[in-house]
Design brief:
This protein has helices at about 1-10, 30-40, 125-130; strands at about 20-30, 45-50, 65-75, 80-85, 100-110, 120, 120-125, 135-140. By secondary structure, the protein is of the alpha+beta class. The chain has a single domain (about 15-140), classed as Immunoglobulin-like. It is elongated, with a radius of gyration of 18 Å.
Length: about 140
């Protein structure tokens, strides 16, 4: 009985972000995939978590009025694929923000090219809105 109660309390104490995973489908048009792959360049997918501060988050407010919570970065080959985001979520200081926001961006990793060559758009929203769904970033060469 005590073990069962402990398990129930443990599950109730899980952070609000321990939801269904957030998946990112990243796709490339043929011209972008060929240019990046032929140059042996990689693509970097960057995610960052932030939110409006709670009273506990007040000391951490950035110049844009948000509290930065953490980030994830993935380096991938320029090939259509699905990435599951959120490996860092368990360690985020959720008590510092009212609601956790996530922004995802992708660009050339700059191992070969000095400047970014890709226009991939953004995925942005609250973690609650994004969880349990697959979101798409489609990459093309800047200017195409």
């Amino acid at each position: 009985m005590l073990l069962r109660l402990s398990l129930i309390l443990c599950c109730l104490a899980l952070p609000a972000m321990a939801q269904e995973p957030i998946r990112l489908q990243i796709t490339f048009d043929a011209k972008a995939a060929a240019k990046i792959a032929d140059a042996k360049e990689m693509v970097e997918v960057s995610t960052w978590y932030e939110g409006e501060p709670t009273p506990a988050g007040a000391p951490y407010i950035s110049e844009i009025g948000l509290v930065y919570l953490g980030a994830e970065t993935y380096q991938i080959f320029p090939r259509d694929q699905v990435i599951t985001l959120g490996g860092v979520q368990a360690g985020l200081p959720l008590d510092l923000v009212k609601e956790t926001m996530l922004t995802v961006n992708a660009y050339t990793a700059r191992q070969v090219f000095e400047d970014n060559l890709l226009d991939c758009g953004l995925v942005s929203g609250t973690v609650a809105e994004l969880a349990g769904k697959t979101h798409t970033l489609h990459c093309k060469l800047i200017g195409d």
